[in-house]
Amino acid sequence: MSHWSNWSGSVEARPARVEQPRTIAELAALVQSAGKVRVVGAGHSFMPLCATDGALLSLADLEGGVTIDETASRAWVPAGCSLDKLTKLLWDKGWSLINQGDVNPQSLAGAIATGTHGTGATLGSLSTAARAFELMTHDGSIARCSPTENADLFEAQRLSLGLFGVATRIEIDILPAYHLEERLEVLPLDAIAERWNELAAENRHVEFFVFPYADLALMKILNPAPSEGEMREQKDMDDTSFRKVCETCRTFPFMTGFLQRRILPKEMKRRRVGPAYRIFPSDRTVKFEEMEYELPRNNGWPALREVIGWIRKKKLPVAFPFEFRLVAADDIWMSPFKGRDGASVSMHQYHRMAWRDIFAEAESMFRAHDGRPHWAKRHTLMTKDVHDLYPDAQRFCAVRDRMDPQAKFANAHLMELFGIETRAS
């Protein structure tokens, strides 16, 4: 029996076996012989989506390459390929992803299966880029789905949480390679709020980070731009200094507010231009726990203000900043953005500080603002909540029942979350 833990260290499991198949035949043999199967990428899920006492599989080395259809601006991609590796491969071929999130170690399949996203009022999550899937089902056979082939499976698989099988290849929309101009600026939070709708309309990507005790925020704006040659490296925050701040907050919680009001300079403007795949991600080395709620766009600011006000009133030691982004509406059954443009509010806590009770109380506020949680970030949803929040949950579960009647691909967390135990036979 092996030991596995996620990136932050808060989710642990003892899988019976950990395997990294290199061929489809090897994968089929593993799936056929295992009682339970989960697939892991970089372990960046804060919920126990990958935890299992069965077989834990990595597809990082599974056979297959990237095939591009230039006419359709689409690519077939190995599902286990990391976003880091994939974006470099695409760039070398003259292509880019439509959008990316803040970090890039995740596998493509994991990012799509959990609705991972970046920011942009007109841009959807990575799940919206998926156009077809090939996945290995419970008996080791390959099923293919798209809008015109096994359409109900495709609709469920677009954000699947890995419940229908092991994705082996995914067809995604791509764009000709492009550069981005990145602008970082420290501004008063109130000034950002006053101009928010204007900023969102004028820029392809806009987001900001704000510490709960600070009145200043770090705003990041990205827009396509011509290349300016070699890109210079820069960070939005110095990780060494920030780690020291977090450790101080852990040891002396009463200093959290004092430190956060001084962590950002009163004035800062930085600019650079580089390949999209290098500008999008940041290198996050200070570990944290995270809860993220996706709210109707007009509810984003009120929810953020309420939670920050509560933290200040209770003098809670929350060491990390909030991240505020925008995501376009989609039509995916289990997407938090289904049917509504979203404001995404990410709440973080230093991994060595208490987070569970703080997140639970903040979650009630996000829920009161009609929020839906990111599936891979901390939440406390129960089966009834899933069905209340997602009218298509019943259709999703019906496809799961048909595709995996013995719940081979459902671990304990997902069995409880979707009430699968009563349906498995």
Main attributes?
425 residues, alpha+beta, Uridine Diphospho-n-acetylenolpyruvylglucosamine Reductase, domain 3, Vanillyl-alcohol Oxidase, Chain A, domain 3, 8-stranded antiparallel beta sheet, 5-stranded antiparallel beta sheet, globular
Explained architecture:
This protein is an alpha+beta fold and 425 residues long. The chain folds into two domains: 1-177, Uridine Diphospho-n-acetylenolpyruvylglucosamine Reductase, domain 3 (2-Layer Sandwich), CATH 3.30.465.10; 179-373, FAD-linked oxidases, C-terminal domain (Vanillyl-alcohol Oxidase, Chain A, domain 3, 3-Layer(aba) Sandwich), CATH 3.40.462.10. 29% of the residues lie in helices and 24% in strands. The chain is built from 13 helices and 20 strands. It has helices at 24-33, 83-92, 108-114, 151-157, 189-202, 239-251, 256-260, 276-279, 300-314, 356-368, 383-389, 393-403, 412-418, and strands at 4-5, 12-13, 17-19, 37-39, 55-57, 67-69, 74-78, 95-96, 130-136, 142-145, 166-173, 175-176, 179-188, 205-210, 216-225, 269-275, 288-296, 322-327, 342-350, 372-373. The chain has an eight-stranded antiparallel β-sheet with strand order 16-13-15-14-18-19-17-20. Strands 6-7-11-9-10 form a five-stranded antiparallel β-sheet. It has a three-stranded parallel β-sheet with strand order 3-5-4, with no helix packed on it. α4 packs across α12 (393-403). The radius of gyration is 21 Å and the shape is globular. The protein starts with a strand and ends in a 7-residue tail after the last helix. The model has no long low-confidence stretch (mean pLDDT 96).
